């Protein structure tokens, strides 16, 4: 690895960072091409996950954090931390790894580790960062959008960066896309948000951005709905609870199940109050089997295991050629599974896919472009590869070529390229 401009003594070294809800990456430009840092041996993407080990009082990130969870180490696992930006939860203090901290401290620790690993790999000191950000952290609340960027800036500064600039993630992805004349649409479905950029390119590759737009909906929302529809019924969602103060029964309240299906809410469920509430539901249930499983999940802190199982089931169902796909729930009970044929998967995602199509159409409206004039859709992010999402974009832009070849690295590659031009 060599410095891109060794003669410069005044320009700061800037690291391009794609801090994602599910995965992160970092890189810089070398000889005009993106070079992504190996943040783990042989891997340029790093799961955006942190594990606080109760025994050693240490923190582990990335795949090491995920392994700690899977292997049953004692501690607290966290993922989807980006979703807390712009919310009051970000600054709530918790005892983690033997010390009091808030979630901005956790994000800062993760970013500091990315910075350290990049500096070790390149032998450069990165004092500045160019960070990707969603077009909208929060769909309809501009004050929270502003606060979310301020929160993320604060996290970068706590991580040791002197300054940070931000670039919309779909615009970063466009920097890495192959040039092609005509009008195109970047569709970036990340873990927590969906972002769109409409652009025009000429024969020489010159690019003009026409509009960018987005909404707070992404892959973790897909996982949440799939879990609510197909996993939570096995844990007692919908079970009838006898009224202890009178006759009759009512369905179990949805809140515990909804939170258990939500990546960023899972760590908040392991306190005594939630376990007590679940125990009360089980004691008064007409059928206790599902709620007994819920109690086991809470007592053994299996919420993230269920979330990973749901995510894996989604991927299997999307690629299945028959109707036998399942969500493997053996972590809860031997032999337990939830059927998830592709038709059921797409039924669960119908409204969200429609929302994505609607906001893509709104992006084109803001750009003053007719959908029939779009000749390419550049799909970015793992959830953009879902067949239902691709079909919705093809339906919106019937003459467009659907491009997926750089779906998993386009944002990071674009930020790496753009970092060399960042003006601090």
TrEMBL record:
It holds the Pfam family HSP70. Coiled coil: none annotated. SUPFAM superfamilies: Actin-like ATPase domain. Keywords: ATP-binding, Nucleotide-binding. It comes from the Bacteria. One of its GO terms (molecular function) is ATP-dependent protein folding chaperone. Gene3D superfamilies: 3.30.420.40, Actin, Chain A, domain 4. InterPro entries: ATPase_NBD, Hsp_70_fam. The keyword NAD does not apply. The keyword Disulfide bond does not apply. This is Molecular chaperone DnaK. It comes from Tritonibacter mobilis F1926.
């Amino acid at each position: 690895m060599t410095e891109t401009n060794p003669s410069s003594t005044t320009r700061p070294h800037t690291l391009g960072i794609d801090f994602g809800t599910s995965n992160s990456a970092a890189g810089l430009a070398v000889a005009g091409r993106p070079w992504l840092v190996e943040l783990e041996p042989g891997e340029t993407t790093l799961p955006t996950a942190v594990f606080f080990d109760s025994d050693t009082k240490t923190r582990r990130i990335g795949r090491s954090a995920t392994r700690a969870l899977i292997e049953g180490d004692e501690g607290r696992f966290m993922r989807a931390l980006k979703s807390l930006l712009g919310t009051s939860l970000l600054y709530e203090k918790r005892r983690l790894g033997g010390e009091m901290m808030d979630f901005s401290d956790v994000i800062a620790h993760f970013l500091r580790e990315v910075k350290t690993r990049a500096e070790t790999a390149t032998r450069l000191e990165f004092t500045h960062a160019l960070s990707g950000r969603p077009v909208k952290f929060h769909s309809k609340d501009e004050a929270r959008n502003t606060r979310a960027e301020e929160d993320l800036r604060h996290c970068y500064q706590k991580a040791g960066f002197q300054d940070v600039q931000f670039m919309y993630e779909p615009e970063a992805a466009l920097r890495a896309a192959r040039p092609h004349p005509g009008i195109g649409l970047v569709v970036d479905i990340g873990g927590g948000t969906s972002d769109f950029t409409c652009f025009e390119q000429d024969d020489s590759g010159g690019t003009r951005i026409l509009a960018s737009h987005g909404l707070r909906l992404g892959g973790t929302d897909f996982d949440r709905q799939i879990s609510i529809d197909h996993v939570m019924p096995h844990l007692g969602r919908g079970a009838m609870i006898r009224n202890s103060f009178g006759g009759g029964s009512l369905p179990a309240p949805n809140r515990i199940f909804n939170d258990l299906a939500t990546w960023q809410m899972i760590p908040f469920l392991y306190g005594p109050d939630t376990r007590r509430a679940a125990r009360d539901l089980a004691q008064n249930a007409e059928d206790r089997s599902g709620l007994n499983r819920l109690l086991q999940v809470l007592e053994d802190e299996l919420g993230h295991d269920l979330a990973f199982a749901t995510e894996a089931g989604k991927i299997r169902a999307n690629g299945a050629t028959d109707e036998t796909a399942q969500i493997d729930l053996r972590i809860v009970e031997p032999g337990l599974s939830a059927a998830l044929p592709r038709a059921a998967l797409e039924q669960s995602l119908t409204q969200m896919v429609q929302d994505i199509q609607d906001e893509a159409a709104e992006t084109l409206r803001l750009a003053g472009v007719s959908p029939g004039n779009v000749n390419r859709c550049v799909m970015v992010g793992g959830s953009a590869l879902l067949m239902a999402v691709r079909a919705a974009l093809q339906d919106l832009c019937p003459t467009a070529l659907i491009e997926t070849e750089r779906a998993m690295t386009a944002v990071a590659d674009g930020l790496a390229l753009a970092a060399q031009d960042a003006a601090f």
